[in-house]
């Protein structure tokens, strides 16, 4: 089984950056995703240049920090000028959806303009698993030619059979509308460790392990 260990939230803070790059130096992490609107984005870009053999993607973000876009149409998604996780419970009218698409375009463009080769996408709070944002994410993929995206099926979760079935259908669409490569499943580190200790690891082709260095949520 191929195991991908990806550090999320790079650029969210200097503490997260420091922990992530320390793990890269030790060889425990070889992949990370940059939060382009994070307060420590420039620090992350600077240090990323020390790791040419690691993969860097974009952590698409519509739920934390201030947007890069100044569009007034983003107002329904903001609280005190910053994105709010409440966005995930909304339905998006056309103007808002277009503004969110523009924001994600700007986020990826900022990473590209910083000289970081973008290899893949994932997202903060799994926004790319939202049906409302499916074609928004696909538009961003097409614009930048990104064919690798995190799957939305979490293995070892306690979700219902119906939820799991819906995620499998969603991932089928994710892989086949604008052909995309994704791991079979993804998993948080704590769940993976528990399963590994009890020797209950399933037979998978590829598993992405999500880690969050420096955040207090390993």
The general outline is globular
* Largest β-sheet summary: 6 strands, parallel
Percent of residues in beta strands? 15-25%
Instruction: Order the strands across the largest sheet as they lie in space.
Output: 6-3-2-1-8-7
**Helix content range:** 25-40%
Unreliable stretches, pLDDT < 50, 5 or more residues? none
Counted by DSSP, the helix tally is 6
Q: Multimeric state of these chains? A: single chain
The span between the termini is 22 Å
Estimate the mean pLDDT confidence. Answer: 92
Determine Rg (CA atoms, Å).
Answer: 17 Å
How would you characterize the overall build of this protein?
This protein has 218 residues and is of the alpha/beta class. Helices cover 35% and strands 18% of the residues. Strands 6-3-2-1-8-7 form a 6-stranded parallel β-sheet. Strands 4-5 form a two-stranded antiparallel ribbon. α3 packs parallel to α4. The longest helix has 20 residues.
Set out the fold topology:
Layout: E1 2-10, H1 14-26, E2 31-34, H2 41-48, E3 55-60, E4 78-79, E5 82-83, H3 94-113, E6 118-123, H4 134-144, H5 161-176, E7 185-188, H6 189-197, E8 206-211
Parallel strand pairs: 1-2, 1-8, 2-3, 3-6, 7-8
Antiparallel strand pairs: 4-5
């Amino acid at each position: 089984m191929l195991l991908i260990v990806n550090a999320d939230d790079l650029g969210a803070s200097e503490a997260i950056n420091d922990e992530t790059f320390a793990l890269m130096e030790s060889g425990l992490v070889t992949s990370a995703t940059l939060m382009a609107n994070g307060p420590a984005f420039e620090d992350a870009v600077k240090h990323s240049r020390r790791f040419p053999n690691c993969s860097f993607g974009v952590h698409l973000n519509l739920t934390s920090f201030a947007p890069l876009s100044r569009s007034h149409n983003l107002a329904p998604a903001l609280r005190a000028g910053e994105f709010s996780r409440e966005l995930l419970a909304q339905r998006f009218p056309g103007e808002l959806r277009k503004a969110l698409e523009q924001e994600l375009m700007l986020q990826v463009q900022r990473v590209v303009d910083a000289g970081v080769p973008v290899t893949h996408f994932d997202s903060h709070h799994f926004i790319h698993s939202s049906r409302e944002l499916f074609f928004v994410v696909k538009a961003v993929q097409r614009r930048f030619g990104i064919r690798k995206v995190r799957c939305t099926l979490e293995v070892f979760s306690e979700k219902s059979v119906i939820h799991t079935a819906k995620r499998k259908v969603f991932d089928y669409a994710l892989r086949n509308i604008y052909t995309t490569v994704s791991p079979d499943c993804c998993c948080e580190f704590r769940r993976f460790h528990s399963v590994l200790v009890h020797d209950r690891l399933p037979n998978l082709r590829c598993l992405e392990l999500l880690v969050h260095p420096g955040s207090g949520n390993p």
